[in-house]
Amino acid sequence: MTRIALLNIGSELLRGRTVNTNASQIGLMLGSQGFALNTTWVIHDEEEAITSAVVDLMNRHEVVLITGGLGPTTDDITKKTLLKIFGGEMVCHEATLERIRTFLSRRNMPLLENNRQQSFVPSTCTVIENEMGTAPGMVFKKDGKLIVSMPGVPFEMEHLMRKGVLPELKNEFLKAHLATSVVRTHGIPESRIADRMEKIVADFDVRIMVAYLPSFDGTKIELKIQGPPSQADELDATVKNAQKAVAKELRDYVYSLEDLPPVEILCRHLLNQNMGLATAESCTGGAISAKIVEQSGVSAVFMGGVVAYHEQIKSGWLGVSSELIKQHGVVSAGVAEAMASGVRERMKTAIGLSITGMVEANGDNQTGAWIGFSDSSGNHSCQIKLFKDRKINIQYATQAALVFAVRMLCPLSLD
């Protein structure tokens, strides 16, 4: 297995001012291609610290990935330090300079000297052009080792990893075929999944690696098997059979066999079927709608959403019966279904999705929510239990509503 180290440069990471999301994202991206991180270091923006860390990590790893310290300010010294380590001279990368000039021109901003300096790179590196920002990625090769320096801005780092880093790693170090599959579940704890899985994992090919990855949209079960490229078809079939076995065992909790979050699955289905969607949210305060509008092209099918936080909006605008609220309470199946039906009728869409709940304990009341779904076949609902933290509950309830919509619109056939 190729030994890979990640070096995150940034004093703000150590002081807690910035959350180090790059480490988790790079770990996931490497894992998707059959690689794994051996270690992750975080250090200050200091020349001595950078030099010591790069040299030390190179001595013990075939690959060193570096993020941070490539900006236009005086504390961004990574590039100058790498020049001292790998030699050469600073040269202007003309394509990067032109991209910076265009980037600033479109925003009516002048090209300052510190902006121009970002186009200069050590002559000993190969540049990975950065279409998402101004600082290019840099690839150094020395004594059979691969060292890659990328910006610390997460979306720029992800772009460079996909565009240049992962292809380079696969070309240089990956000598095997990696077969993967996933099973996405919701509504069952990770410990219960592991317990249920014991009786079927014993029958798996011993080479299959199983990982449980919990998140707000449920637990993703990841299955991997790696072997010679000549056995690719056999490996793919083996992992697919394992996927089917897992899905059947957990069928009541499985909502997808794709490695996609529920909002992407939902929006893709709506776009493919040209089905309009409207949302009515109470306890999530518009978070469901916010997730939906992150998806490209969704304006063709998402009509809009209503934040019906107060009872008067539920009854006045969505048409939920005051008697229904009085009889069952705002956190109930009937109210959730009426909200979904009401927003669907008023916005004239094929689908109405709603949620009403209590995301914070109040006296003896338990936190919980009801999700409503309405389409031409009728109204449906499901209940979810929540936790003690208000912010966590909003995130969890948002994902639960999206998962419920996926289950209603894209039921899986596991037979």
Throw out a few tags for this protein.
3 domains; 15 helices; 5-stranded mixed sheet; Molybdenum Cofactor Biosythetic Enzyme, Chain A; alpha/beta; 415 residues; Maf protein; 6-stranded mixed sheet; Alpha-Beta Plaits
Task: Please outline the helices and strands.
Blueprint: E1 4-9, H1 11-14, H2 21-31, E2 37-43, H3 47-60, E3 63-67, H4 78-86, E4 90-92, H5 94-106, H6 113-117, E5 120-122, E6 126-128, E7 137-142, E8 145-150, H7 154-173, E9 177-185, H8 190-201, E10 209-215, E11 218-227, H9 232-249, E12 254-256, H10 262-273, E13 277-281, H11 287-293, E14 302-307, H12 311-316, H13 322-328, H14 333-347, E15 351-358, E16 368-375, E17 378-385, H15 390-409
Parallel strand pairs: 1-2, 1-3, 3-8, 13-14, 13-15
Antiparallel strand pairs: 4-5, 6-7, 7-8, 9-11, 9-12, 10-11, 15-16, 16-17
